[in-house]
Amino acid sequence: MAKIKKVGLQSERDRDRQRQSRRTFTFDVDGSPYIGIYALCTESLLLLPAHVSDRLAEELGQVLKVKVIRTYIAEMPLIGCLAAGNSKGLVVSQYTLEREIEHIRSVAKAEGVECEIKIRRLPVEEKMTAAGNIILANDSTALVHPGLSNEAIEVIRETLDVDVYRGEIGGLRTVGMAAVVTNRGVLAHKDATRAELSYLEEIFKLPVEIGSVNFGVPLIGAALLANTKGYAAGYETTGVELGRIEDALGFG
What we know:
This protein is α/β, with parallel strands linked by helices. It is 37% helix and 21% strand.
């Protein structure tokens, strides 16, 4: 009987840790667990919609250990869909307003971000406009939608100072939503093929894992923000999924 009781107590402690972990690392934006479509995180900055509360901005900034900038992109709150970036720069939708770009630059400077952030729009001629959906990047490499123009790829290469490759993840061309990459690891769509995973390992030169967010959703980028210092996931992400995130991105 003592042995059974001990196992039960241990299980309850595990559940307590999972509940605490979920409270600490899961969030919502405007009631939505898809925080990745509303925000963009790099090693130094977190871009959030201008209307989010001070409390949410402060909590996310603390978890990710970055400076927070509240803004819109193309007058919309869907920052994670419309912008992509790394420590060296940001690539944004061609519909991004000049005042939005200047606001990001000025706040970054005021917040003491060490290096000046390069910000460039996708080419006006480019048919695709949702930069965050079609670019998956860390500080050394970017994987992009296979249909992206050569002109757009050159903008990405110069702005982010990365090697750029075309590809798919899980059969999806919207690679920015199909995975999340930091400078430590990659967490990809759970249906990514062996060939796709091997390609990710080859170009990023990092360990690659598969997983999900928000209780089984395979679009990792839609509900996960991460850098090498921390991560934040949608509030429906389970304890098991959080464990997978931590293992894949080097927090385990």
